[in-house]
Design a protein that fits this description.
Immunoglobulin-like, about 170 residues, 10 strands, four-stranded mixed β-sheet
């Protein structure tokens, strides 16, 4: 957890309890939860306790997924239905010589803890960052429906692209 500087005493020791003034005052705290490696999922909790008689203890659950520099593609129909199989996925970039063309791609699901949103039917791949304005082109096709999207990746970036087929 990253706390505002006011939560440290003059000796640099972190106060055990964070006190929020009465009367509806808000305090913003930043929680940084990082997955230490690619292709892994981690879950953590943060327990908040206070003098609220209705909710004296609140437990927040956090999760992280280690992802490579690259992209994830989710393919939806016009009605929002996820496609479990895509007939054709092509990713290409002329300068970095990326050219991946996959047919009849079964998309996989990420099974998170029950309280999180499930990512259904996705295709994920590592890609090198684009440089000097280089752009990747992603083409997805199911039956006679297709969509083309152009995108770039900054160093260290992971993009999740949602493709809605008409």
């Amino acid at each position: 957890m990253i706390l505002p500087a006011g939560y440290f005493n003059i000796f640099g020791v972190l106060f055990r309890d964070i006190t929020v003034a009465p009367g509806g005052t808000n305090t913003d705290l930043t929680v940084k939860f990082v997955c230490p490696s690619v292709s892994t999922k981690f879950v953590g909790t943060l327990v908040l306790s206070g003098n609220d008689p209705v909710h004296p203890i609140t437990t927040l659950t956090f999760g992280a997924e280690g992802v490579p520099v690259g992209m994830r593609v989710l393919v939806l129909g016009a009605d929002g239905t996820h496609y479990p199989v895509v007939d054709d996925i092509e990713v290409k970039s002329s300068r970095s010589k990326v050219n991946a063309h996959l047919r009849n791609v079964p998309l996989t699901s990420i099974e998170p803890p029950a309280s999180w949103a499930e990512i259904r039917y996705h295709y994920m791949t590592a890609l090198p960052p684009t440089a000097d304005g280089e752009v990747y082109q992603l083409r997805v096709q199911v039956g006679n429906r297709k969509q083309v999207v152009n995108f770039a990746l900054a160093p260290g970036e992971f993009r999740q692209l949602v493709i809605t087929l008409p």
